[in-house]
Amino acid sequence: MKQYHIGFSREDLGDVPPRLAFLSGDRNRTRSIAESYLQGARPLAVNRGLDSYLGFLSDGSPVLCATSGMGAPSLSIVANELVQVGINQIVRIGTCGSIQPYIRTGSIVISQASLCRQGAANDIAPIEYPAAADPFLTVALVRAAESLGIDYHLGITASVDTFYEGQERSESSANPHLLRRLRGITEEYRNLRILNYEMESGTLFKMAGVYGFAAACVCAVVADRVEAETVVVEEKEKAVERAIRTAIEAVEELGIRN
Questions:
Q1: DSSP states of 164-204 as a string?
Q2: What is the pLDDT of residue 257?
Q3: Which of 117, 225, 242, 245 is catalytic?
Q4: Is 177 marked active-site?
Q5: Among residues 120, 101, 105, which one has the least CA distance to residue 166?
Q6: Which residues, 6+ apart, have CB-to-CB distance to 3 below 8 Å?
Q7: Which of the residues 19, 29, 31, 81 is marked catalytic?
Q8: Is 152 exposed, middle or buried (0-12, 13-18, 19+ CB in 10 A)?
Q9: Which residue from 35, 72, 152, 224 has the highest number of Cβ atoms inside 10 Å of its Cβ?
């Protein structure tokens, strides 16, 4: 039976189905990964903006490229259905904003764990449940970045529900009136040595712990929140390319677990 949201079934994946999925919020990034970095890629489904592709690594291993949409609620649906079709490893390839002065746009952040401030995750596990990345996939991402000579940072990510209020944006937002609990929160997180803001990894990591799959996250840094609230568009393409290359190299070197 085809999964309602992602639009394909386990039977659509062939005789040797993939066990690993590269997951991106942007369907254009999903298509780019499939068409530019995988071999023999073909569309699986174009459904509700959650486009998916089946392709192969250089060693012939099948992998999925899937789209989560923006934010944790959408990701939680997609991740759930990916597990139902047999996926047991998910590597999120996303974008983020840095909150540390030494992390510049164009670099990448590899999340070892997330501070999870997300309502979707609270439906899956208690607030206190750890949002931790798989250590083997995470180390593989680090080694891949080092091998490729890519500027990377490893640490804790703040994973929040909203792009504007939740990440303390007021100057670039339609709503300049932040709640008291959000005023100064970026500085608090900076003092906690948190590296970046994004919107999906916390729920992904909690789902991985509860469901029993392995998850990791690598994000391209496209905003320097120490300097400004806005995305540095001219840096985005190169930064995203670095994150994709890191993820592909990591999986090819580590191999796919059955």
A1: SGGGT--TTSS-----GGGTTHHHHHHHTTEEEEESSHHHH
A2: 73
A3: 225
A4: no
A5: 120
A6: 9, 81, 84, 85
A7: 81
A8: buried
A9: 72
Mark whether 169 is an active-site residue. yes
Beta-carbon contacts of 16 under 8 Å, excluding residues fewer than 6 positions away, are 62
Tell me if residue 181 is catalytic.
no
99 touches 189 (CB < 8 A): yes
Tell me if residue 81 is catalytic: yes
Contacts 24+ apart (CB under 8 A), 25-30: 25/67, 25/68, 25/69, 25/70, 25/71, 25/75, 25/94, 25/95, 25/199, 25/200, 26/67, 27/51, 27/67, 29/93, 29/240, 29/244, 30/65, 30/66, 30/67
Nearest to 98 by CA among 233, 206, 223: 223
pTM greater than 0.90: yes
Run of H or E residues at 130: none
User: Is 116 strand, coil or helix?
Assistant: strand
Residue 196 in contact with residue 159, Cβ under 8 Å? no
